[in-house]
Amino acid sequence: MPDATPLLELRGITKRFPGVLANDAVDFDVAVGEVHALLGENGAGKSTLMKVLYGLYRPDEGEVRLHGAPSGIATPAHAIEAGVAMIHQHFMLVPTLTVAENVALGLSSNGLLLDTSEVAERILELSTRYGLHVDPSAYVWQLAVGERQRVEIIKALYRDCRLLILDEPTAVLTPIEVDELFVTLRTMATDGVGLIFISHKLDEVLALADRITVMRDGRVTGETAPSATSRVRPSGSANWPRRNSSDHGVGWTRASSARTASTSPSPMGRSVTSEAVLRGATTVITPHRPGSPS
Ligand code: ADP
Ligand code: MG
Q1: Does 90 reside within a domain?
Q2: Distance 241 CA to ligand 2 centre (A)
């Protein structure tokens, strides 16, 4: 039987900034080999929650657990040691160093860089396995933004990450790069890595994720497992890989009420289930406009 202990559990995470309740008692978990999407509009609290997990913020309340035990993560260095990596909205690479030097940075114990030819060899292995095309000898300043993102992912893989957080990774990518990223992420999930995929694009999360949690105004407002994905793929995404999860049927759950939709096909070729999910999700993520009643 597979180990049922979640890779990650966030329990009752509350984080306040002056005048803002950024996270309000948020529960969130990730299983081994699962892609769990965090969906929500700007300001919903997604990045804050991930920064708490990654040790950039200390929560006011709540607990972060890894493999069923308190994570002990208080800094990003702890997070990396614990096998947690984060691809930020803004990349953290050193432009004047090569790809291999950037990947090796911080890995050596004696303060010197590792042998970059060995590093380059391993980079090429990872690049082949995960479809992450980069030239290890290129300088980072020479690279386009999509290539820089691939370097960041290789850096995480090089450190043997078990949980990868991607904060709005598609925002900087071309449609073809999005397709390629999704192939990479599904391959990582197949290898047992847990992934947190942050987005505000419903079509993307339906295509990629095993599970979707929706956040709004600091709170979790819903969760669903989009097992009807293949029927709601938007045009232009024919190459997106299939999720590898077993199909449990879709249960769209609101924080306050729960319902399970039927799965009979509709005349439009989409299942009733996915329509229900879409309706439910779009309702939940309707942006709050300043000045309108909440
Ligand atoms: P998301 O990533 O979903 O767009 P964030 O987590 O960035 O949302 O922000 C959640 C709320 O917390 C927003 O109202 C934002 O303005 C506020 N916030 C985020 N970071 C800080 C910070 N460092 N200081 C003050 N307020 C912040
Ligand atoms: Mg954000």
Answers
A1: no
A2: 25
